[in-house]
Design goal:
2 copies of one chain form a homodimer.
Chain A: E1 11-12, H1 25-43, H2 53-63, E2 70-73, H3 76-88, E3 93-98, H4 102-111, E4 114-121, E5 124-125, H5 127-135, E6 140-145, H6 159-172, E7 176-179, H7 195-201, E8 208-213, E9 225-228, H8 231-245, H9 250-261, H10 265-290, E10 296-297, E11 305-309, H11 316-325, E12 328-329, E13 331-332, E14 345-349, H12 355-374
Parallel strand pairs in A: 1-12, 3-4, 3-6, 6-7, 7-8
Antiparallel strand pairs in A: 2-9, 4-5, 8-9, 10-11, 11-14, 13-14
Helix pairs in contact in A: 1-9, 3-4, 3-8, 5-6, 10-12
Chain lengths: 375, 375
């Protein structure tokens, strides 16, 4: 367990990316050809900043909004960045979860936003703290949330928490940005309603920004993410998009639309479940069998991630350095916090390695943690 | 000529976009399928911020640089924005041509850069003024140039001007950003060497940023632009790209690579010439026959644009308003200048309308100009 392994033998729990065997290659190859043949004269040209018309219609139907409210973007990160640019270029306060998606923290920091946090832990979201922030000064411009298969913890807010959030947003007219990149990747249990949908159903349509992506559910190489925005935000975000990249890549959007319109999404999601479930189960099994009792971890019902709280004496950054030498990678949890927290936490993505790799990687990791405790 | 025409009858010289009959639909449909089948497991996933490896190699070969110096981006505008962000976020002076690409002016203004100009007129580039600016204070961080089929004028810098520019850049260690979106679309005459290539040949490799795109030469809906950067710029630009969109859309890059590697580019460029040449010739013919003698215009050897200097008494913004009523669109020239200039200028793009439309549109426009002079 202590020799340095060649890079090729490294097993990575680090990146939240699909494994190559997840892609519907044959179906996408057909859709790729067909979309060019059928609508190449449109899809090969520039287009509106909000994306390929038929895909906006498909998504509008799915979310029960007018297609003009759907902005399709070259990946969901750029949508998040455009919203941050629009809201926080003049400054202002943002509420995020702790921990939260690290790239959102970078985006807010880069623009100089005033970032405050609410804990997202084993007991869910700290709604008392959130209530205090929503009523306090300065008035927050945005609450950024990952309600479902949260990055990095893999947890979901309960239905009660979702309703409480809607109450709170309506009461304080708080704009909620729901980041739902992983929502379709449910392995166990029943789907929960999106916070944005609940808000809309109660008249809070102008308080909900919903973000999702086909990077996790179909293929990241398409770079198709999207936003559902309140009417008031559509114009400014489209103007920013035009200044940033003229129009998004229509061709992959048309190719994805062909795939979706042919009814391929639901069967493909079922196929993804057959890959993700045993990877998650294997990871949970090895952790249960071999982690020292001082460690705890989440039990995600879907998504890509599991969150590990290591024994308090272990520094995850230091552990990660040693882990490389024994051929296993993960992301130390500190980067998912605003400020200096999470020293003994780690994010494990079970999406990329095979079941066998998950087993071996988790065995290497648990052995290393035990070694560290014995030092 | 004075009634208001329905929008559908409008002929547009406004947007610099290809016409739908320019796209190699059948070949791209095949490439689209083949790229997914052959390399879908790579091209459908996330990838390096610099883009799809085989396309970077293809472009590196073409430009005589290592593939790592080529950054493939979702359109060339985003590359330009990333370079501006990197260089001018801390402030600084940029030299641009007058007139120049309007979106570059927006990008520099938005970040608060100190913009100064050198005239790009009938006599070429004002090199004396440029020399003064290069030696003056504050020291300029960048010279942004469109040497070939310049947007908006359609003109090219001569070979002598290119050599003089290289001398100047080397003497003053001035970083040159060469925007070459239209260079491959030559209709007449022989190709001129890129300024970046000339700089590199004389040891000024670290002073040249070259930008191009397949939006004009193949299809904008692919959103494939690229930068060739000095080694020192590669890392920072890739880091900015990662923060902006994780990785660019690999799928359309792989599909374009299949198209290029199959040897389709040169025959396709030849096909584009057969479409662009008669459109340009028709526009020049109608202008020569019907414009009042007080007007002058450029005679582009390629690209998409022609630049019109209207009689001095005519305000192009006002003319454009009236032109809409008679079913013709163009872009008033003022927006291509930093500061208040170009009131009587206009950019006409001959890329989109058919030969018949070019003729009718130019007849409408020239009649309107004559009407204005007679008022």
């Amino acid at each position: 367990m202590t020799g340095v392994l060649p890079e090729a033998d490294t097993i990575s729990f680090a990146r939240g990316i699909p494994s190559p065997d997840m892609f519907p290659v044959a179906l996408l190859a057909e859709s790729a050809r067909r979309a060019v043949e059928r609508d190449g004269r449109v899809a090969l040209n520039y287009g509106p900043p909000g994306g390929y018309g038929p895909l906006r219609e498909w998504l509008g139907d799915r979310h029960g909004v007018a297609p003009g409210r759907v902005l399709v973007l070259p990946g969901s990160l750029i949508g998040l960045n455009l919203v941050v640019e629009h809201l926080f270029r003049p400054g202002g306060r943002a509420i995020v979860e702790a921990p939260t998606y690290d790239r959102m923290l970078h985006s807010l920091s880069a623009i100089g936003a005033d970032v405050v946090t609410v804990d997202r832990g084993g007991d869910g979201l700290d709604l008392d703290r959130l209530h205090g922030l929503a009523t306090g000064e300065p008035r927050p411009k945005l609450l950024y949330l990952l309600p479902t298969f949260h990055n990095p913890t893999g947890t979901c807010l309960t239905i009660d928490e979702r309703h409480d959030l809607v109450d709170l947003a309506l009461e304080h007219e708080l704009l909620v940005f729901e980041d739902d990149a992983y929502g379709l990747l449910r392995v166990d249990g029943d789907a929960l309603p999106n916070v944005a949908d609940l808000l809309r159903a109660r008249g809070g349509d102008d308080l909900a920004v919903f973000s999702s992506s086909f990077s996790k559910s179909v293929a990241p190489g398409l770079r198709v993410g999207y936003l559902v925005v309140p009417e008031s935000l559509g114009g400014p975000i489209e103007a920013l998009a035009t200044r940033t990249y003229v129009s998004p890549p229509l061709l992959p959007q048309a190719q994805l639309h062909d795939f979706l319109a042919a009814g391929n999404l639901d069967p493909h999601l079922e196929f993804l479940r057959t890959l993700l479930r045993p990877r998650r189960d294997t990871l949970l099994d090895v952790l249960a069998a071999r982690m020292p009792p001082e460690a705890t971890w989440t039990r995600p019902d879907g998504g890509y991630f599991l969150w590990l709280e290591l024994p308090a004496t272990i520094d995850a950054v230091e552990l990660e350095r040693r882990a490389r030498d024994v051929g296993v990678r993960f992301v130390p949890g500190g980067g998912f916090f605003h400020g200096d927290r999470g020293r003994n936490t780690a994010r494990l993505a079970f999406s990329y390695p095979s079941v066998d790799q998950v087993r071996v990687g988790a065995e290497r990791l648990t052995a290393l943690v035990r070694e560290e405790l014995d030092r």
